[in-house]
TrEMBL record:
This is Acetyltransferase (GNAT) family protein. Pfam families: Acetyltransf_1. GO terms for molecular function: acyltransferase activity, transferring groups other than amino-acyl groups. The keyword Transferase applies. It comes from Paenibacillus sophorae. Residues 2-129 form the N-acetyltransferase domain. InterPro entries: Acyl_CoA_acyltransferase (IPR016181), GNAT_dom (IPR000182). The keyword tRNA-binding does not apply. Keywords: Transferase.
Amino acid sequence: MISIRKIGREDLPELNGLYEELTGHKSNEAKLASVFESVEYNDNYILLGAFQDDILAGSLMGIICQDFVGECKSFMVIENVVVASRFRRQGVGRVLMQEIERAAREKIVLISFLYRAGSGRRRISSTKS
C-alpha cells in the first residue's frame, strides 16, 4: 500500500535517485541538502513522497505563489513529478496528485493545474470560500 508523507532529510539520498531517473543525472548532494534546508520549514513549499514499504516510489513538489494579476490570488505550481520506473503504472502518480490537490485546497485561494487521470487529462480549478 502506498503512503504519502512529506519528504524528510533522511529521504534525500532516495530522492536524488528519483531525480536521476527524471533528468538523467544526480543532483549535487551538498546543494540538494542546502536547498532542502532552506525550504524545509517554508509553508510555501510542499515536497511530498509516495512510499511503499518504506521505499520512496515517487515524489513531487508544490510551490505556492502569489499572483499580481486580477484578484491577486495565490496559486500552486507543481514541479519535479517523478515515479520510480519499477513503480510506474500502479497509481503512484495519481495518489501524489490527489494529495497535493488536497494540500492546495487547504492552503491557497485558487488552484489550477492539469494532470493525467486515466486515459485523458483533467483540469482542476477551485476557489476557497
